[in-house]
C-alpha cells in the first residue's frame, strides 16, 4: 500500500487482488469533521475533485470509504456535484428501478446469478464515461462488485483475436419481451412505437415489429475502442455476456427449442457480418476476464467511482439483503465525448 498524500484526506493506492490493477482509496483522516464524526463527501468536495482530476484517468477506479453518506439523496448530490448531468438508463439491457434524479438500483437479477464483467452499455454506440456505485446495504455474504482494468484485458488477449474483433465488429441481436427478457417499453422508457423507431433511427439500430407486437433490434458496434481522453486502446464490448453460451447449458437448450434460430433468442451476439463467434475466442476472453478480476467486500456508505471505459464491473452472487445504487454521467457517442 502506497500513501500518496495526507492532509484531511488519506489517499492510498491499493491492490485488492486477486487480479492485477490498482484502485485509489480515499478516506477521511480522524478529526476532520468538527463534530468528531465522519465528514460528508460534499464537505470535502474541493479536495475530492482534485483527487479525481489527478487519478481517475490514470488508475481508473476510486473508492471513497469512511464518509458520512448513506442513501439516494446524498449519493445523487455527490455524483451531480462533478458538474455533468446524470444520465437516464436508455436502451438498457437489464432490469433496474429508476429512483429519480439520475439514480438507479443496480441490476435486479436474482441473488444466485453472477453478472459477468462488462463496461456499461458497451453493446451500443453511446455510453457513459463516468459511473458511480453506492453501497447502502452490503450483503450478508458475497455481493461484491468485482472490477477489472480494460487496458490490462486488452493487452492480455491474443493480438490476432483483438484484430479480428476490431475489424469485424459485433452485431448484438435482441428480441424483447415474451416473458423471456425485458419488455421494449421498459428498455426505451415509452410505449410509443414511433418514439422507439425514432430512437433506433437516430442511433443506428435496426428495428422490426413482430406479428405478436414485440420488438426485434440489431445493431453493429465496436468491439474495441480508444479512450476519448487518453487515446489508450481498450477491450470494450459485451460479447461474452450477450452470447448464448453465457447461459447454463440447460437454459440454452430450452431457449433454442423455443426460438429455433440463434437470431430469435432473447439476446445474442455475432460478428458484424452475421457470422458466429468462435467458442474458442469466447473461452479465451472469459479466461482473461477471470484472471484480471479485482474484488473487495462492500462496506455500508462506500462509493466507487469508475471510468467506465478504463474499468469493467460485475456482480457476485450473494445472500441476504443487498442494496447498491448507480449513477452515470458524461456521455460518449461513437467514441467521442458528446
Dominant shape? globular
Rg over C-alpha atoms, rounded to the nearest angstrom? 20 Å
- CATH superfamily caption of the largest domain: Clavaminate synthase-like
* Main sheet properties: 10 strands, mixed
Q: What is the terminal-to-terminal distance?
A: 37 Å
SSE pattern: EEEHEHEEEEEEHHEHHEEEEHHEHEEEEE
Poorly predicted runs: 1-6
The CATH topology of the largest domain is what? Double-stranded beta-helix
Helix content: 10-25%
Q: Report the top-level CATH class of the largest domain.
A: Alpha Beta
The count of domains is 2
What structural class do helix, strand and pairing data support?
alpha+beta
Provide the residue-averaged pLDDT.
93
Number of helices: 9
Provide structural commentary.
The protein is α+β, with helices and mostly antiparallel strands and 338 residues long. The chain has 2 domains: 2-110 and 125-143 and 296-337, Double-stranded beta-helix (4-Layer Sandwich), CATH 3.60.130.10; 153-288, Clavaminate synthase-like (Double-stranded beta-helix). The protein is built from 9 helices and 21 strands. Helix 1 (45-59) links the parallel strand 3 (23-28) and strand 4 (61-64). The longest helix has 15 residues, at 45-59. The radius of gyration is 20 Å and the shape is globular. The two termini are 37 Å apart. The model is unreliable at 1-6 (pLDDT under 50).
Amino acid at each position: 500500500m502506497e500513501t500518496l498524500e495526507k492532509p484531511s484526506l488519506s489517499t492510498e493506492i491499493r491492490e485488492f487482488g486477486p487480479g492485477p490493477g490498482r484502485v485509489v482509496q480515499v478516506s477521511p483522516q480522524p478529526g476532520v469533521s468538527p463534530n468528531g464524526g465522519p465528514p460528508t463527501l460534499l464537505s470535502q468536495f474541493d479536495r475530492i475533485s482534485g483527487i479525481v482530476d489527478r487519478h481517475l484517468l490514470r488508475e481508473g477506479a476510486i473508492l471513497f470509504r469512511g464518509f458520512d453518506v448513506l442513501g439516494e439523496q446524498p449519493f445523487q448530490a455527490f455524483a451531480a456535484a462533478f458538474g455533468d448531468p446524470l444520465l437516464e438508463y436508455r436502451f438498457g439491457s437489464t432490469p433496474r428501478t429508476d429512483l429519480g434524479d439520475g439514480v438507479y438500483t443496480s441490476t435486479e437479477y436474482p441473488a444466485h446469478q453472477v453478472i459477468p464483467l462488462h463496461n456499461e452499455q458497451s453493446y451500443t454506440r453511446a455510453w457513459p464515461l463516468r459511473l458511480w456505485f453506492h453501497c447502502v446495504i452490503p450483503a450478508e455474504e458475497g455481493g461484491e462488485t468485482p472490477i477489472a482494468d480494460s487496458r490490462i484485458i486488452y493487452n492480455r488477449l491474443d493480438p490476432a483475436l483483438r484484430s479480428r474483433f476490431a475489424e469485424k465488429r459485433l452485431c448484438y441481436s435482441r428480441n424483447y419481451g415474451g416473458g423471456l427478457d425485458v419488455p421494449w417499453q421498459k428498455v426505451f422508457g415509452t410505449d410509443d412505437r414511433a418514439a422507439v423507431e425514432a430512437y433506433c433511427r437516430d442511433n443506428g439500430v435496426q428495428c422490426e415489429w413482430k406479428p405478436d407486437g414485440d420488438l426485434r433490434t440489431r445493431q453493429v458496434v465496436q468491439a474495441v475502442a480508444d479512450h476519448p481522453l487518453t487515446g489508450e486502446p481498450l477491450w470494450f464490448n459485451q460479447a461474452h455476456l450477450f452470447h448464448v453460451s453465457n447461459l447454463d447449458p440447460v437454459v440454452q437448450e430450452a431457449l433454442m427449442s423455443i426460438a429455433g434460430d440463434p437470431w430469435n433468442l432473447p439476446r445474442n451476439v455475432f460478428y458484424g457480418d452475421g457470422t458466429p463467434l468462435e467458442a474458442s475466442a469466447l473461452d479465451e476472453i472469459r479466461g482473461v476476464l477471470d484472471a484480471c478480476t479485482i474484488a473487495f467486500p462492500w462496506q455500508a456508505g462506500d462509493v466507487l467511482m469508475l471510468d467506465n471505459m478504463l474499468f469493467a464491473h460485475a456482480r457476485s452472487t450473494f445472500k441476504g439483503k443487498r442494496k447498491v445504487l448507480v449513477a452515470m454521467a458524461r456521455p460518449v457517442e461513437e467514441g467521442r465525448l458528446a
